[in-house]
Design a protein that fits this description.
Layout: H1 8-29, H2 37-55, H3 60-73, H4 75-94, H5 96-105, H6 113-128, H7 131-148, H8 153-170, H9 175-184, H10 188-216, H11 226-235, H12 244-254, H13 259-277, H14 279-285, H15 293-305, E1 308-309, H16 315-320, E2 322-323, H17 330-348, H18 351-362, H19 366-383, H20 387-404, H21 409-421, H22 431-440, H23 444-447, H24 452-466
Amino acid sequence: MKTPRLSLSAALFPLVILVLLLTFNVTVFGDDALSGSNQFILLLGASVAGLIGIKNKVTYGEILQKVGENLQSVTEPILILLLVGSLAGTWLLSGVIPAMIDYGLQIADPIFFLPTCVLIAAIVSLATGSSWSTSATIGIALIGIGKALELPGGMVAGAVISGAYFGDKLSPLSDTTNLAPAMSGGELFSHIRYMLYTTLPSIGISLFIFIFLGWSFSSSGVVDTSFLSESIREKFNISPWLFLVPLSVILMIVKKTPPLLALFIGTLLGGIFALIFQTQLLLELSNSKILDFRAIYQSLLNAITVNTQIKTSDPLLNELFSSGGMQGMLGTVWLIICAMVYGGVMDAIGALQAISNAFLKWAHTSFQLIAGTAASCLTVNLTASDQYLAIVVPGKMFAQSYSDRKLAPENLSRTLEDAGTVTSVLVPWNTCGAYQSGVLGVGVGEYFIYAFFNWISPLMTLIYAYFKIKIKKLKVD
């Protein structure tokens, strides 16, 4: 099909309408906007773009064809998301995730409490793939301990948020970590490996600052996390052998095993280890008196596919020890599908090409392109007030520009995370900022300056771009 030539104003019109609608939608629905209304707004934006295309003699069939090609391109990311949900379920049931949390809690120390907060939050977020769950569980406990040690609430919250977003950003269980490569046309594990270049220095600098602050605010108090560890061990059989499961998946990633296969094997290993280490828990979840094949099958399949909730004696842990399985990923899958519909229509009518051409005329260097992408992510976080949209909208807008510059999609996906995912929590009216502030009981203005990782990350990606460090090029056949 021949792509029509659009003026820049005509190409930007559907984008402006989309941002305005999303901004209004988030003010109406707040955190619930992701439950479906944002997805429908993406379809409304696609409709506006489609009308412009039809006016410019683009047929309905041509638009549908491009939408179909877009949806086909995210087949693997969607399957990966579903397997991520299943893996999270069996890793919870087997005790892998609780073991990570339990051993993480044991490294708490009064003098090094702030960097310890970062490390514990990072471990929990890596294990669960959710910065929100981390803050709502371990984060609340750490805030309470920080108050007992007479540390400023904003400082402790900044440490928790820094660690939580570091873990969320690198965890293959995270929806944003899966969403970024899906929007840029990249691959999950390659995206994670490439993020390490900017993410590790960012968290390293953050830890150094928190160590300095920890010494400055040293306390003679005692950090007591034994009540959390006791609650975990009451319900789970914790053993170092459980770490064989994540280590096996890490080894497969290093060996460049296809992500679908690595995640599927990781899910099966989680199920096997649940059978070995958590027989009592399997019996409890199946509501059976005898652990027979039926009970095992029911517990494992529920963990893989639908919601699994494991109750402990501590209310803080109950939300953390909950997994939606494959079903829990359907919201993100829905978002991806609607985003690809919008992107497909914008591509079919020539809007993406017009925006890309105009942007390339301004962005004469790779640095300018990456800086423009980062600015766009921050703009969407400020206007549409949602971290997912800060990945989806710039991702679809600039994917072609990166390709035209012969830049690998990992450059785009890394920038989307460095500038989109992590800065959302710094905006008070963003869903992330509002959520974290409400859960931790600390205002965004109080923790803003102390969330070092979250504002160092976008600076780090700009530094790398300016000095041309680890800017991956497309392979030319």
